[in-house]
Inverse folding.
């Protein structure tokens, strides 16, 4: 069972949902939910991840990240701000060391906080 599968199962049981109830609420088969919990299905669609997050009360961003996907909220920000998307791509292409990348993003966050406080 994968870590994300364990999380799904634990949240489902916490809510006292059966596989059947969860499947109906998410709009998938019982077998599909069982496979997700066992880690046998590793790449659910964005729509399924979003529905699982709502039904099971899991932070959507965390669930997307657990599946190795960029959260939809982050994608919307990137699509609405092409300059930000370009900047991130350039940072990735320059192959900065982990330390330098951390410093860069720290500086960006500091400036962002200053701008939003005004």
């Amino acid at each position: 069972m994968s870590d994300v599968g364990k999380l799904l199962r634990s949240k489902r049981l916490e809510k006292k949902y059966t596989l059947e109830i969860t499947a109906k609420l998410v709009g998938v088969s019982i077998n599909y939910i069982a496979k997700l919990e066992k880690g046998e299905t590793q790449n659910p669609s964005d729509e399924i991840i979003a529905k699982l997050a709502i039904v099971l009360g899991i932070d959507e961003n965390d669930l997307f990240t657990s599946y190795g996907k960029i959260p939809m909220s982050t994608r919307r920000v990137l699509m609405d701000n092409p300059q930000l998307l370009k900047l991130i791509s350039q940072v990735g292409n320059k192959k900065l060391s982990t330390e330098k990348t951390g410093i860069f993003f720290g500086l960006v966050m500091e400036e962002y906080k200053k701008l939003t406080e005004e």
About this structure: Residues 18 and 115 are 48 Å apart (CA to CA).
